[in-house]
């Protein structure tokens, strides 16, 4: 019974489907918020920095790399590059 409860708890703790980041995504207005949003969406954040007034974050998910730029005033994605 204890093993079943643990398995059930793990099923609820792990999202069934990961959400994709898009140009419509609002990720946050600070570097920490953007990183947390991407992590919650199932991405592994590799690097985050400020560049030309934008929050720039490099990420990986399912073996695919990407780069996103976020406006720190609005939290909106301004540029998104996905690489194979």
Automatic annotation (TrEMBL):
What InterPro entries does the database record attribute to this sequence?
A: PepSY
Q: Which UniProt keywords apply?
A: Signal
Query: Which interval of the chain is the signal sequence?
Result: 1-18
Q: Which residues form the PepSY domain?
A: 4-80
The keyword Signal is assigned to this record: yes
Q: Tell me what this protein is called.
A: PepSY domain-containing protein
